[in-house]
Design brief:
about 15% strand, five-stranded parallel β-sheet, about 325 residues, four-stranded antiparallel β-sheet, alpha/beta
């Protein structure tokens, strides 16, 4: 049975994430301690105790989600009951792609975390320099969303940037254009338009400055060559790219993909449809929250997704594997 590990992106953070796991599993606590040392501040305390405004800041939430996902992954890999669970393919939503690359073994924890920290800082700086926002449009197809963006934009930047699942597309652009889109959404038949609590217009040209900064950092990072084969085997772990739903084949393409992520749309639905077409039958969402589990249910409700985001979910998984 082909298996994929999925890793969440920004927005999955919640106060208390990873706390019960770190208290129970020393290997998870060590991941947080290592992260604190690399980052130069106590990330674990913010993850475990907040405050919310600090955790939700782009410069903190991105490392927090990456580290929490890595800590849960470490428990999965080292616990006798679950270490037999491995992935043929890894995927991550936007920020989560860094965790996917780490999980596939093409980048070290240290290098990935440093890049994630720089990414968050660069995106926050770009957001501060522009006036951008994002909205989740519920209940419209791609064609209708594009029409909505064209009318609401009125010459300002507004475009569809996250194609998450059927009936859920995120748009991003100028703040005033986003406000107009909220008012016009009902006219196009949307169930609702939800403003997102983000710093700016991510995945648009408003992030060009951040992309330039990140590109420089990526050139210095050590990234191994990924598996370059068109055949999924049981011994190889492949990584699928957000920006084109293709598998990464070289380290340079990884660098290009991670850079383009900041200014290009995220094709999550296409990524999941590609994995399904390639025979993946079992999915594990590893990290805080249940966002990707929910999206997969909208993409294909028959597919089994095991969510691993808490101590209880790890205990349940251990019981299942023991029984099997």
């Amino acid at each position: 049975m082909k298996t994929a590990f999925l890793f969440p992106g920004q927005g999955a953070q919640i106060i208390g994430m990873g706390a019960d796991i770190a208290r129970t599993f020393p290997v998870a606590a060590l991941i947080y301690q290592k992260a604190n040392s690399i980052l130069g501040f106590d990330l674990s305390q913010i993850c475990f105790e907040g405050p919310a405004d600090k955790l939700n800041n782009t410069t903190i939430s991105q490392p927090a989600i990456f580290v929490t996902s890595a800590a849960i992954l470490e428990v999965l890999r080292t616990s006798p009951e679950t270490r037999s669970i491995t992935a043929n393919i890894t995927a991550g939503l936007s920020l989560g792609e860094y965790t996917a690359l780490y999980a596939a073994g093409v980048i070290s924890f240290d290098d990935a975390l440093i890049l994630v920290q720089k990414r968050g800082q660069a995106m926050q700086a770009a957001a501060d320099a522009t006036q951008g926002a994002m909205l989740s449009i519920i209940g419209l197809d791609e064609e209708k969303v594009i029409q909505l963006c064209a009318e609401a934009g009125q010459g300002e930047l507004l475009q569809a940037v996250n194609f998450n699942c059927p009936g859920q597309i995120v748009v991003s652009g100028a703040k005033d254009a986003c406000s107009r889109a909220v008012e016009l959404a009902e006219k196009y038949g949307a169930i609702k338009a939800i403003p997102l609590e983000v710093a700016g217009a991510f995945h648009t040209e408003m992030m060009a400055g951040a992309a330039e900064t990140l590109s420089e950092a990526l050139q210095k990072a050590e990234i191994s060559e990924p598996v370059d084969t068109r055949i999924i085997s049981n011994s190889d772990t492949r990584i699928i790219s957000n920006i084109d739903a293709e598998y990464y084949t070289t380290a340079e393409k990884i660098r290009q993909g991670l850079t383009k992520q900041l200014t290009c749309p995220i094709l999550w639905q296409k990524c999941m449809e590609r994995l399904l077409a390639d025979g993946v039958e079992m999915f594990y969402e590893i990290g805080p929250g249940r966002v990707l589990t929910g999206l997969m249910k909208r993409i294909n409700r028959k597919i089994k997704v095991i969510n691993i985001s808490s101590l209880d979910s790890l205990k349940d998984l251990s019981q299942i594997t023991n029984y099997q």
